[in-house]
Design brief:
Blueprint (H helix, E strand, L loop, with lengths): L6 E7 L5 H9 L16 E6 L5 E6 L11 H11 L10 E7 L3 H12 L5 E6 L1 H6 L6 H8 L3 E3 L9 H8 L17 H15 L11 H7 L4 H19 L2 H21 L4 H18 L2 H17 L2 H14 L7 H6 L4 H7 L6 H10 L8 H12 L4 E2 L2 E2 H28 L19 H35 L16 H13 L6 H7 L8 H14 L7 H8 L2 H13 L4 H11 L3 H27 L3
Parallel strand pairs: 1-3, 1-4, 4-5, 5-6
Antiparallel strand pairs: 2-3, 7-8
The structure holds guanosine-5'-triphosphate and magnesium ion.
The site of guanosine-5'-triphosphate (GTP) has 28 residues, from helix 1 and helix 4.
Protein name: Ferrous iron transport protein B
Keywords: Membrane, Transmembrane, Transmembrane helix
Pfam families: FeoB_C (PF07664), FeoB_N (PF02421), Gate (PF07670)
Length: 616
């Protein structure tokens, strides 16, 4: 069916009412859903297909409390709804999504939207929770009061959007209230109208109950709460090492077998070397870390979907305030554990520009998942698999590295505050979502997305860079009668020796120096690159043995120094590109790269010297 004039509807509502979950259900998309406000910061478009075969274009928007924005992400919502964006017409109809358990708050925006005089429908989302709490909502009455169709939805059940789909089918019949152009009503007037409507349509909705206060007494307790937070994070890093061992061994065995098979079944020559030393040792060597990444995200997703995260933000708010970060920075910084890029984009929920900039500048110090392969490799090679009481030393070290990232972010933020004489501390205002059991569907979508992103990276950027590195490390071939490993005569080998002048003071050998260059594009590439470089210098053995090789050839001091380097170094061009986009200037990405490289070099230098001095 042709749909040149496909119907376009926008999902509009308060933060955390389930717009994105509904969007995913309608369009089959896999956008991020989590139990806190401010998850979506950009508009996303998808297509829903109705029973009749008709298609509807659906726009998911950042949550907004009102059409008068106080943050950049809310401004996106206003601009899309009002059709103020140059590249996009206003939506034909509005689906106002509300959290049915919090109507007194959510209906205000609905009344504001209604004044626009557009075809509109109300989706009472979280109908399951509302029912479980015994909230009685007279849907017909509510519909009559508001003058728009009202449907109940449950965005976390596979058929939870059936009523909405049926209404979309007959969208042309949605009534349109006349547009009101008089001055916008004050919040108090809006609230009065909401009360009036609820008094007749859902009287029980006005009795606002707090359900979670008993749990919160512990979770948000200044001492017990912090202890719980530390324990949770700690368990998470333990699991990254102890649970991942089995699947990692399986992947390693498979790539090793592939390498061995190629070595016996192919004639020796450049193509075999490209496959074994380039592709398998390089990209294959990075793939091994998939289980650890998934375990880390399994925990992060659980914390996100349960409603725990904003509580942790409150716990840490005073600490963050002391170093000059806004409490709102917590969630962007936490997202940066996945990757600094969504983290930096999530800073759009911070209203104050200085606060936002400070958060952007420290976001790359949070340990992103691309560092995990590097850390895991170095930890497995150099930290013994020993148990201290119930703790495993490798997990403990990883935990320490994450803490190091966080602490350095605090120090840098504090220094920035000094330089910029920032605005005074503003206490955190953030809605606490109710606790929820994490949904299996969300969990599955979240893990699947992480796996997909990682495998795509391995298959594209990591693969191409290791292949490129293989060429640079193989050609030109060594001159006749050359003695050392062939790679030393190659372009990459020569570059590595040149760079070594810069890196020798911090203990890096030429192999590491080479690996750092492609690793600038993306951190994990450094692992793949080390695999390729050592496979080529080793002379023909099966490639996958990077771990024992570095364990044997590097001094402990070198290993620690390289770890310190990766805590700080801005080895990620995409992050710098996003900073350029978000700040609209080259100044901040350049400043960021400069300060991070300086920190990395200094930290590695100190680490290396101290380690040597201690006799490692
Ligand atoms: N029980 C239940 N949970 C829901 C329902 N809809 C959404 N959720 C949960 O509510 C939380 C918020 O969902 P999102 O879809 O991220 O909310 P959003 O409106 O897009 O939030 P922002 O992007 O921050 O504005 C998640 O934990 C969802 O799993 C529902 O109908 N029932
Ligand atoms: Mg959303």
């Amino acid at each position: 069916m042709s749909n040149t004039t496909a119907l376009k509807v926008a999902l509009v509502g308060n933060p955390n009412c389930g717009k994105t979950a509904l969007f995913n259900l309608l369009t089959g998309a896999r956008q991020k859903v989590a139990n806190y406000a401010g998850v979506t910061v950009e508009r996303k478009v998808g297509t829903a297909t109705l029973k009749s075969g008709r298609t509807v274009s659906v726009v998911d928007l950042p949550g907004a409390y009102s059409l008068t924005p106080s943050t950049p992400d809310e401004a996106v919502t206003r601009d899309v709804v009002l059709g103020r964006r140059a590249d996009e017409a206003a939506p034909d109809a509005i689906v106002a999504v509300v959290d049915a358990t919090n109507l007194p708050m959510n209906l205000r925006l609905v009344l504001e939207l209604k004044r626009l005089g557009r075809p509109m429908l109300l989706s009472l989302n979280m109908a399951d929770v509302a029912r479980a709490r015994g909230l009685q909502i007279d849907v017909a009455r509510l519909s009559a009061e508001l003058g728009m169709p009202v449907v109940e939805t449950v965005a976390v059940q596979s058929q939870g959007h059936a009523a909405l789909l049926a209404q979309l089918e007959q969208q042309s019949q949605w009534p349109t209230a006349p547009a009101v152009t008089s001055e916008a009503p004050s919040p108090i007037e809006l609230q009065r109208e909401v009360r009036r409507i609820l008094a007749v349509a859902a009287p029980t909705a006005m009795q606002f109950k707090r359900f979670n206060h008993r749990l919160d007494a512990v979770v948000m307790h200044p001492v017990a709460g912090l202890a719980l937070l530390a324990l949770l994070l700690f368990l998470m890093f333990q699991a990254v090492f102890s649970w991942a061992a089995l699947p990692m061994d399986a992947i390693k065995a498979a790539t090793e077998a592939a390498g061995a098979w190629l070595t016996t079944h192919m004639a020796d020559g450049p193509l075999r070397s490209l496959l074994v030393d380039g592709v398998i040792a390089g990209a294959g060597g990075v793939l091994v870390f998939l289980p650890q990444i998934l375990i880390l995200f399994f925990f992060i997703l659980l914390l996100e979907d349960s409603g725990y995260l904003p509580r942790a933000a409150f716990l840490l708010d005073t600490v963050m305030g002391k170093v000059g970060l806004s409490g709102r920075a917590f969630i962007p910084l936490l997202s940066s554990f996945a990757c600094a890029i969504p983290g930096i984009m999530a800073t759009r929920t911070i209203p104050n520009w200085r606060d936002r900039l400070a958060t952007i500048m420290v976001a790359p110090l949070m340990t992103c998942s691309a560092r995990l392969p590097v850390y895991a490799l170095l930890i497995s090679a150099f930290i013994p698999e020993r148990h201290i009481g119930p703790f495993n030393l490798q997990g403990l070290t990883l935990f320490g590295l994450y803490v190091a990232g966080v602490l350095s972010a605090m120090v840098v933020a504090w220094a920035l505050k000094r330089v910029w004489t920032k605005s005074s501390y503003q206490p955190l205002m953030l809605e606490l979502p109710p606790y929820r059991w994490p949904g299996l569907r969300n969990l599955a979508i979240g893990l699947w997305e992480r796996a997909r992103i990682f495998i795509t990276r391995v298959g594209t950027i990591i693969f191409s860079l290791t292949v490129l590195l293989w060429f640079l490390s193989t050609y030109p071939a060594p001159p006749d009668g050359a003695t050392g490993a062939a790679i030393q005569y190659s372009l990459a080998g020569q570059l590595g020796q040149l760079l070594q002048h810069v890196f020798a003071p911090i203990g890096f050998n030429w192999q590491i120096s080479i690996a750092l260059v492609p690793g600038l594009a993306a951190r994990e590439v450094a692992v793949g690159a080390l695999g390729t470089v050592y496979a080529l210098s080793g002379g023909g053995e099966v490639a996958d043995a990077l771990l024992p090789v570095i364990a044997q050839q590097w001094s402990l001091a070198t290993a620690y120094s390289l770890i310190a380097w990766f805590v700080f170094a801005p080895q990620c061009l995409s992050t710098l590109a996003v900073v350029k986009r978000e700040t609209n200037s080259w100044r901040y990405p350049l400043l960021m790269a400069a300060y991070l490289f300086a920190l990395a070099y200094a930290a590695s230098f100190v680490t290396y010297r101290v380690a040597l001095w201690l006799g490692s």
